[in-house]
Amino acid sequence: MPNELLVSIADVKNYMDITLTPRQEDAVTLVLEGLQSELQTYLNRPVMLSNFVDEEYRLDSTHVGVPMGTFLSTNENTYNSSFYESGRSVNVSSWAEPPPAIYLRNTPIKQITQIKLKPAFGNERTLQPEVDYVKRSYGFDYFYGHADDLLKVTYTAGLDGASIPLLKLTILRAASREVQNLHDDVVSVKDLTTRNVAPLVTGFLDTELASLRALRKFRI
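The chain above was modelled as a monomer; its predicted structure follows.
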């Protein structure tokens, strides 16, 4: 999945009021890609809306997709006879339990484009929204399925970084320090002398990351 950069080379030029050669622009692109990747690792989520295609999720071996009332239905998901015919052992109390939640790897979820179900036994089919599942910000509630079924999910997720000024500013601040260090190193090499300039801190400062803590996804 290719990542679009939240901060462009033009943003860096304007922020620092500098001009760059084509080779310097290549170096700045590497810096911006690295900083965005570092920030996404800290936040545990993309900073830009991104598409994810056919991410695979295997249902738990104890999965029982029988929400309350389903065993009385007459559609293709009916369980009123198939469970008994298949010899499966199902606790009746599970019929009244909430549907299992499937947590996707990237959040928040903007849109679920498609979910394909490949049963452990049977043919692959496409699930219907609001019938087979309901989208949530963290993933979706799945009403049916059997143990060890495979779900392939295509969806759009991530923060809308363009609408969160603090995200862009944080990357710009870190990028400006990196670019300044690159500039000082180049000047020192050209002058063949060591400049009496202390290198700026690279990466994100603790205070900068702390300001983004509210956007971070914590894994439980």
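The radius of gyration is 25 Å.
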